[in-house]
Amino acid sequence: MKETILSVGIDIGTSTTQLIFSKLTIENEASSYVVPRINIVDKEVTYRSKIYFTPLLSQTEIDAEKVKKIIEAEYKAAGMKPEDLQTGAVIITGETARKHNANTVLASLSSMAGDFVVATAGPDLESVLSAKGAGADAFSEEHRQAVANIDIGGGTSNIALFQKGNLKGTSCLDIGGRLIKIENGRISYIFPKIQKLAEAHGIHIAVGDRAEETVLYKICEYMADQLAMAIHAREADSLHAGLYTNDGKPLTSEPKIDAITYSGGVASCYYNGEPANVFEYGDVGVLLARAVKNNAALKQVLTYPAAETIRATVVGAGTHTTNVSGSTISYSDGQLPIKNIPVLKLTEDEEQNPVMFKESLRRKLKLYETEGALEQVAIVFSGRYHTSFLEIQELAQMVVDGAEEVIAGPHPLILVIENDIAKVLGNAINVLLKRQKKFICIDGIFANDGDYIDIGEPVAQGRVVPVVTKTLIFNT
After folding, report:
1. Does domain 2-121 match CATH 3.30.420.40?
2. b/e per residue 326-345 (b: at least 16 CB within 10 A)
3. Domain map of the chain by residue range?
4. Euclidean distance between CA atoms 293 and 83, whole angstroms
5. Whole-model pTM above 0.70?
6. Are 31 and 10 in contact (CB under 8 A)?
7. 1-10, 334-343, 394-403: range with highest mean pLDDT
8. Within 184-212, where are the H helices?
9. How many CA atoms lie within 13 A of 127 on its CB side?
10. 330-331: strand order across its sheet
11. What's the pLDDT band for 325 if we cut at 50, 70, 90?
12. Contacts by residues 249-253 (CB-CB < 8 Å, ≥ 24 positions apart)
């Protein structure tokens, strides 16, 4: 039996705000007398909004009222009402996520429809989401290569590297099209790091100067060089480390990047060509696209066409896959239900190597920190490689060692496993933690990086829990 649900995605980015509606068809693909597995069998983007410049009151504050009016107008244009929607996502990304009233804006918009995934996507998480939107993960799996997506937006360039479909690393630089703004033919804003980059190369510009295309293009060439350094296509210079967002770290040099996709507003010009007026958007985004396209080091790396460019981060919202957990689960009383928990996925390679498992878990947990505080997160892995009693004791120790930050924090330890080992694994972890940490350990559920899960109250005398997996849908 098939069912259709409607979802909405709202992306409030550094440069642009946009909205998309999708129609999702879900169906139980399991046979009779088997635990249901409801999957999306069809997806259709039914409405794409206009693309708006994100309204700001100042360099540090979003104009929440104007954002809300944009969204309300697009609902009306699409013939949609909040009560028509079952799921969706509201995400604030890029420089906009750093505005001091970002969370207030999210809260006001999330009330407009359904049970939304609501998040201010930090630079690492945004890198993953935009890469999936561009199709970098799919290309890497299809071609068995290491593929990096560079999402060049208004304020930042987010990079995510996938190898054979698995996430290998992320980074983010303060390189973007709106870091120099143009108004009435003159420079109206220069981001301090870009001013420093220009001056280091002997170019002196100031707010109020006439916007000279040749001068600004030269600065964009240096910005493109920094992107080439970020993917190890050329050697990093002394300025490079200072251009990472929030003092972030570069990608590791391994695996070697075989190919690139580009997404973001700048990528739209990269793939589709320049407008007649290079300053049409009131910034240097068009010139940056040209500089990236002409960069000698970047041209040496194979480039795939992106599935999405300017709409990569959120092109639709909410796969709404409802599952029932396995019957071998373990959890602390009073911890359910929980909603909108982001997923951290460990690969099978990591799972088979105890040292790699612990190091990867510690590193990936950093992706889910906001202003130094770890958010609630669900740790997901297959559980296929630890099935005997002794192996499960080893796995329990690996989890406890790798998830130290979660265990020391206020949130419960949440484990989601594909194989049916949750009850014994949960018991083993409970013993190691001397029954002092609240935890949830469920199995029979499949989820990936970028997904969010809801876990409902236990049913069937507490033997199983309903689980909703929500994945940002990209128009691939």
Report:
1. yes
2. bebbbbbeeebebebbbbbb
3. 2-121, 125-303, 325-471
4. 45
5. no
6. no
7. 394-403
8. 192-200
9. 27
10. 319-324, 466-471, 451-455, 338-345, 378-381, 413-417, 439-443, 330-331
11. very low
12. 249/171, 250/171, 251/148, 251/159, 251/161, 251/169, 251/170, 251/171, 252/168, 252/169
Give the count of beta carbons closer than 10 Å to the beta carbon of residue 404: 13
> Taking a C-beta distance cutoff of 8 angstroms, is the pair 321, 38 a contact?
yes
Cis, peptide link before residue 337, omega less than 30° from 0: yes
Task: Retrieve residue 435's tokens.
Answer: 């029954």
State the residue for tokens 């009850």: 423
CB–CB of 147/161 below 8 Å?
yes
pLDDT at 179 over 60: yes
Tokens of 77: 């244009």
DSSP 244-264: BGGG--PPPS-SPP-EEEEES
**How far is CA 22 from each of CA 84, 117, 312, 340, 361, rounded to the nearest angstrom?**
12, 15, 15, 19, 33
φ/ψ region of 138 (left if φ > 0, alpha if ψ in -120 to 50, else beta) reads: alpha
DSSP secondary structure, 277-319, as one string: STTTTSBSHHHHHHHHHH-HHHHTSEEPPPS-STT-S-SS--E
Q: Look at 111 and 81; give whichever has higher pLDDT.
A: 81
Q: Which residue has the tokens 């892995």?
A: 381
Q: Do domains 2-121 and 125-303 have the same CATH topology?
A: yes
What CATH fold (topology level) applies to the domain 125-303? Nucleotidyltransferase; domain 5 (3.30.420)
